[in-house]
Amino acid sequence: METILQQVRDFADQAHGEQMRKYAPERYIQHPLRVMAIVQEYSSSTPILAAALLHDVLEDTPVNKQAITDFLQGLMPATQVTRTVQLVEELTDVYVKANYPHWNRRKRKSKEAERMEQTSADAQTIKYADIMDNAGQIVDQDPDFAKVFLSECRALLKKMEKGHTGLRDKAAAVVDNALSRLSAGNK
Known about the structure:
Shape: globular
CATH superfamily: Hypothetical protein af1432
Number of domains: 1
Largest sheet: none
Radius of gyration: 16 Å
């Protein structure tokens, strides 16, 4: 399994290229690596861990579903390829500004939360880890946007109840702690 995940990591790293994290001076691949490490505490499933590594590829890079599928077909059995790609698709935002330019952010995020509510337990578990990693740095780097972002995360967590309960609770605690830090900083 480690060899497969290393190859998936390399693929994701190449897909993200020179992309950097918005709120940290690091290459983008560090984020999916942390997300996978969080998920790995709750699952050893290769498709779930691979999807954690690939969760932003469709959304944030020019790589498409077919390219991911073709790559994975050389690494894992067909059922695992199908499951991994399904999870990546579930984790890819649909209600983005490019597709809904006349909708404001609040409406897009509300629709996205409704969509995520319908996703699988495994996709929601990965999303919990994604929220945990994203919420950590935003308070210090962009406190004004952090209020909006963390409120959106809280709304998402209220809708997504199918994933791993313990990880969901940890994600909620991270969001609540970040919101508390924001409130303390405003006093």
